[in-house]
Design brief:
The complex is a heterodimer of chains A (about 220) and B (about 230). By secondary structure, chain A is an alpha/beta fold. Chain A has a single domain, classed as 3-Layer(aba) Sandwich (Rossmann fold). Chain A contains 7 helices and 9 strands; from the N terminus they run E-E-E-H-E-E-H-E-H-H-H-E-H-E-E-H. In chain A, strand 1 and strand 2 form a beta hairpin. The longest helix of chain A has 16 residues. Chain A is globular, with a radius of gyration of 18 Å. Chain A starts with a strand and ends with a helix. Chain B starts with 5 loop residues before the first helix and ends with a helix. Chain B has 9 helices and no strands. Classes of the chains: A alpha/beta (about 220), B mainly alpha (about 230). At the A-B interface, helix 2 and helix 3 of A face helix 1, helix 4 and helix 5 of B.
């Protein structure tokens, strides 16, 4: 079973310590919920987990392998949903999704991508040929999330994925997450407000760096 | 990890950028119109003397091509950076260095190639002698891809900066000078009946050097920008 762990993680954002001494572990079929007030470092931690941001300290491991030694393998296994939806207004809904499927097709250990499934599961079938610039904020978000259903990835890193979604789409997202967990995948999700009853919770404010400056922390 | 899907993914990236450029056709058109306008301004500025125009034709066309290439450069990564696509590109399993090459190729196809096609017409306008045309085309064909590659590094470096267009010009125009020097001197050699082979070989060497080095620098800059 896949196991994604971090130990003693710390990271800087804008010259300030976002968090330090943070440990977590999430296994196959498990979901880790990141909670905390605005600015507590949820997004920073997710970007660190994705490999977009460097670590100031600590270690991230997948099945006991240090991620620093297997960047390619990590990129091939993860799906990241950030704040921006990465939707090109000039392309149609299908073309947008097709592009990301084609990009993921390289080196994916989990088999091919299926954009039709992505469109259908996130209820975008009727919009398939529409230029994406006509989509509403919620529809753009759904198009971004459709990557999750279309492209096989073991580890989902979701940063406030339910932002601007209507309640039906939130239910779709929750069903997709459930399906992913049942298939043995891992999910790390940041959100504020929602009650994360059936999953592990990581409260970020307890790892706060206390606004420590970069200069103070580096000997 | 197999590399089997890499050509497909690279093709998809090139196709997407070309499609984006064609759908927002104004951008590509503007580059060509700018190129033509700058060249047309010269006869108005230096006077309609055919001998003078013929002598400066190669230089004018090259400088105008450099400026036109600059003009299109800042949109290369700007929109990807703004809409979050860059993060996903950085996170995609395809090596970022290859993606940089694909983006540069798409940029060349949508701006460099039209510039090459327009150049002979402008040569006629500037009274360039017939011997110069083959060399001009060969020099542009070897030189403009270097501009796309070097400019791509500048575009990646200037991401997120205020007034990135100006910063980009300051970063990149000095690096275009070798291409300009050998591009113009190749055409001059052709016009005076000398062999232009040496200059064309140097342009080719510059292109190979840029193709080998620019992807590393560009990919590092893109990773930095995606932080």
């Amino acid at each position: 079973m896949a196991q994604f762990t971090g130990s003693g993680l710390s990271s800087f954002r804008g010259g300030r310590m976002a968090f330090r001494g943070l440990d977590f572990g999430v296994g196959g079929g498990e979901m880790l919920h990141l909670v905390g007030p605005n600015g507590s470092g949820k997004s920073t931690l997710l970007r660190v987990m994705a490999g977009l941001l460097p670590l100031a300290g600590g270690q991230l491991q997948w099945d006991g392998t240090d991620l620093a030694e297997d960047r390619d393998g990590h990129r091939a296994r993860l799906a990241y949903v950030g704040h921006a939806d990465a939707v090109k207004g000039e392309l149609s809904v299908t073309e947008n999704l097709q592009f990301w499927c084609a990009m993921a097709a390289h080196g994916s250990p989990n088999g091919g991508a299926d954009e039709a499934a992505g469109l259908q599961r996130f209820n975008l079938g009727k919009l398939a040929d529409l230029p994406a610039r006509f989509l509403s904020a919620g529809q753009r978000r759904r198009l971004n999330l459709a990557r999750l259903a279309a492209i096989p990835a073991t580890l989902w890193l979701l940063d406030e994925p339910a932002a601007s979604l209507d309640s039906a789409s939130v239910a779709t997202l929750e069903a997709e997450i459930k399906r992913h967990l049942e298939a043995g995948g891992c999910v790390v999700m940041a959100s504020h407000g929602r009650d994360p009853s059936d999953s592990m919770v990581l409260e970020l404010s307890q790892y706060a760096g206390g606004g420590m400056d970069f200069e103070d922390a580096v000997p | 990890m197999s590399g089997l899907g890499a050509p497909g993914a690279l093709g998809a990236l090139i196709a997407r950028d070309i499609r984006l450029a064609l759908r927002q056709g104004a951008d590509s058109m503007m580059v060509i119109v700018f190129f033509v306008l700058v060249v047309v301004l010269f006869p108005l500025g230096v006077g309609p003397e055919p001998a003078i125009l013929g002598r400066i034709a190669a230089g004018v066309i090259w400088v105008a091509a450099l400026l036109a290439a600059m003009l299109s450069m800042d949109r290369l990564y700007q929109t990807d950076h703004a809409d979050g696509s860059l993060e996903l590109l950085v996170l995609s399993p395809l090596p970022l260095e290859l993606q940089f090459l694909a983006k540069a190729a798409a940029h060349w196809l949508t701006t460099g190639l039209p510039l090459i096609i327009a150049a002979p017409l402008l040569g006629v306008l500037l009274n360039m002698r017939a011997e110069g045309y083959p060399v001009l085309l060969a020099a542009l064909a070897l030189g403009t891809p270097s501009l796309s590659l070097i400019g791509g590094v500048g575009a990646a470096l200037s991401l997120g900066a205020r007034r990135s267009g100006v910063l980009l010009s300051l970063l990149v125009l000095p690096l275009f000078i070798p291409v300009l020097i050998f591009g113009v001197s190749a055409v001059d050699a052709g016009l005076t009946g000398l062999a232009a082979k040496a200059q064309l070989l140097i342009l080719g060497a510059l292109l190979l050097g840029a193709a080998a080095l620019a992807p590393w620098a560009g990919a590092a800059a893109l990773r930095q920008a995606a932080e």
